[in-house]
Design brief:
Oligomer: single chain
Helix content: 25-40%
Number of domains: 2
Distance between the termini: 15 Å
Strand content: 35-45%
Shape: elongated
Largest sheet: 5 strands, antiparallel
CATH architecture of the largest domain: 2-Layer Sandwich
Amino acid sequence: MENLTLTIKANGVHEIDIKKSRFICTLARIKDEAQAKSIIQQVTKQNEKANHNCYAYVLGTTDQIQRESDNGEPSGTAGIPILEVLKMNELHNVLAVVTRYFGGIKLGAGGLIRAYSNATSTTIDAVGIVNLVTKKEIKLTIDYNQLDKLKYFLDTNTIPIESTDYTDKVKLIVPIEETQLAHFVQQLKNLLSDQFAYVEGENKIFEVPYSRAARQRKEKTEKS
């Protein structure tokens, strides 16, 4: 199973309408509870005329901090559904505030649970998810006549180029997962007939676009 440290790609706001009620979900990355509370207060202030500003958030390396609030909605119909969507998507250090402007039609407990869940999940889909992966910067030095071959190899293997410096030789920096480094170097030796140099740089956290559907397809293929 791949190592996942998932979070939202960016902060964002998305709105859905259900039976004339407006559900506005605000998603934000958070570092601690003080920041979470500050954002909740800010969203609440911006929506003073709203009927409810319900929220949930997860914090910590093992999601050891989990908070939720129904903010006046019937118990268990708002905060917990929001929290469950965050957990189902395996998101870390994320806050979701769902603001409701009542449209005059009561939804019932089941309807509220679905509405708050949908408001949160559609907003997550809208902003996107990334996997935070620690990779090592590898500094490559090659001859100019090797550049096209190397670029094709990197593109085929979805390895991004962080920077390129053109001097007497071409110097590139690429991020590689440490567990894949030996295999990567061997691939380059085969590709470039061992005519290159490399230096291991620092470890950095990279945000890799993440698709749950793609992950499920990959797992299904690996099992078959």
